[in-house]
Design brief:
217 residues; alpha/beta; Rossmann fold; binds BIS(adenosine)-5'-pentaphosphate
């Protein structure tokens, strides 16, 4: 069965953590627009050079750029069996474009999951998030620390780094952008009868259990 799931929710709520697990369990592809952009920034491509300043300031990258990127990525072979969208759509025009691009393929988003957690918890989580610059594995110094101080478990000797946009001031800006530009999508998908709300507080395993139950899979 081919399933297309949209993950919505503020920064730090666990979209990446849950999306990776969901995609791996069902062999769906994971399309994370944040990861695609960070990869472009690291490789200094034209996209990366254009996106970097906006990302570092906690602002969104323009809709037309993101829509083109997802149109191409979701048409790749590995997405035919289904995909999980982490970080897209983030605005109403992006949601409209997703509906149109899927409709043109005789498809539609099957479900939109809205994760939620209190803002102060999100700030705490993101302040403690670290990632391995080699394999991009993410850790949390409080809830999911590496075994050896601040080094990657899979790459001993490689010191974990903090994302530029995880500094507290930028996190608060990202939360504001979420409230203003992305949270209207909850009503958008509620109106289509596709929204499933999932509380994202509590242990990662419990959240995953609630997510699976909400999706019936
Ligand atoms: P993106 O990378 O998508 O950032 P985000 O939405 O802000 O999401 P995060 O990655 O910060 O958080 P998450 O919800 O995935 O949480 P995670 O699982 O990592 O986008 C970055 C930027 O790219 C945007 O600001 C924008 O500039 C641009 N961009 C991307 N897409 C765009 C689009 N469509 N349009 C325009 N611009 C776009 O978890 C966070 C931490 O919490 C981790 O340390 C984790 O270990 C921990 N954690 C997770 N779950 C739990 C739990 N249950 N309990 C305790 N800790 C937990």
């Amino acid at each position: 069965m081919s399933v297309r799931v949209v993950l919505l929710g503020p920064p730090g709520v666990g979209k990446g953590t849950q999306g990776r697990r969901l995609a791996a369990q069902h062999r769906w592809s994971l399309i994370s627009t944040g990861e695609i952009l960070r990869d472009a920034v690291a490789r200094k491509t034209l996209l990366g050079l254009e996106a970097r300043k906006r990302m570092d300031s906690g602002l969104l990258v323009p809709d037309d750029v993101m829509i083109g990127l997802v149109r191409d990525r979701s048409a790749e072979d590995d997405s035919a069996a289904g995909f999980v969208l982490d970080g897209f759509p983030r605005t109403v025009p992006q949601a409209n474009a997703l509906d149109s691009m899927l409709q043109a393929r005789g498809q539609r988003p099957d479900a939109a999951v809205g994760f939620d957690a209190p803002a102060e918890e999100l700030v705490r989580r993101l302040s403690a998030r670290r990632e391995c610059p080699v394999c991009k594995r993410t850790y949390n110094l409080v809830t999911a620390p590496p075994q050896n101080n601040q080094e990657c478990d899979d790459h001993p000797g490689t010191v974990l780094t903090q994302r530029e946009d995880d500094k507290e001031e930028t996190v608060r800006k990202r939360l504001q952008v979420y409230r203003e530009q992305t949270s209207p999508l909850l009503d958008y998908y509620r109106g289509q009868g596709r929204l499933r709300m999932v509380p994202a507080t509590g242990p990662v395993d419990d959240v995953y259990h609630s997510l699976s139950r909400a999706l019936g899979c």
